[in-house]
Amino acid sequence: MELSEADIARLERRGYDCEEFVIMGEDSIPRLRNVDGWCVLYDVVRGRCREYRSRPLGCVLYPANMDADGAIIVDELCPQASTVSSQELADRGRRLRSLLDTIDREAQRR
Asked: Which of 9, 56, 68, 72 has the fewest Cβ atoms surrounding its Cβ within 10 A?
């Protein structure tokens, strides 16, 4: 999951050190770290996100995703994929495009 500077700052305010949860891609885009195949924020025992209320915006917008051609799609790997209405997908898609534009602008400044 790609992270914006706002996502990182929010999690840092919650007490995390960015080195705990961020891995920097070769493209200068920060992403949530995975540990043993799970997001670092996922509590495997409880089966839920430790930071659900403060989770990154990309997680909030999921299962809206963007394919290689730039189309907004529903990630069919999500168990709740069939519950996303076309209107909800359109709304999340607009927010996702804005988020990705922000992340790209932030990466260019690095």
From this structure: 68
